Amino acid sequence: xxxxxxxxxxxxxxxGIADEKGNIPYQARLKTQEFxxxxxxxxxxxxxxxxxxxxxxxxxxxxxxxxANYYAGTIEHAPNLPWKGILPFSADVEKIFELKSIITxxxxxxxxxxxxxxxxxxxxxxxxxxxxxxxxxxxxxxxxLVYGKHGFAGELGHTLVSxxxxxxxxxKVGCLETYVSATGIRRTIxxxxxxxxxxSLLRGVSYDELSTHYITEAAQKxxxxxxxxxxxxGRVLGMKVSDFVVHTDPEAVFILGxxxxxxxxxxxxxxxxxxxxxxxxxxxxxxxxxxxxxxxxDAPIVGASSLVWKYLSV
Length: 314
Ligand SMILES: [Zn+2]
Hints:
This protein has 314 residues and is α/β, with parallel strands linked by helices. The protein has eight helices and 13 strands.
């Protein structure tokens, strides 16, 4: 049997068919912003799938989405999606596909994917941070995802780094995701370009073109601004992860997403400052801070489809 995994992002909606081993025989993507109504997006992906796959072989549908409420099956006031308000997304997917579905925050889906297919196999206590446009987090304690009273637990991206810091899309000031995300490092680069006079490959690059990939390439060429930006971003990440550790005493913290693809440029300073800032009680516990074991392209699909194996399989 197969599960359909759907990952709804502000730019792309990725979807694909996965088996229980995490193989993905089919996957595709649609541009989220092209659909004025979310139901049209669901119909479009059903049509695409029906052309390439026998829908009768599906066991269920797992959906990862920003601001998803696991309990209510809704997406609620997601700032980066074109549809406003509280959307009964899971119920409409079930109607259109005539299959059971389950929805959760995209970072929670990633954490589940890590547990089922990635480096967290056999682990009961760990954290997954998704470093994309924003910073998402999925917290697993004693083998289970933490949802909290209202279904919104694990918004680490909106914990405080500096009370007088950067303005965040959520309405607060100084949130972690304004520093540690694809958008965050871009903001850091602009600040460094203003503070230093050294030549840099990043000078003259427009804000929209300043991708994590481009910054990583500059760092590989020894660009001082790019290296400083990774050092700063890694330091903030490492310090915040050490803060998190005292809350749940995890075995490991995994990072994935575009910014995590920078590899050691980000991880080395993150590890250094993580260990430096760790409460002494935890110093000998060998808590891992490492990259996700999921392939970057597959992670959204296997993460969403693992919801089916975890919650819907009989
Ligand atoms: Zn925020």
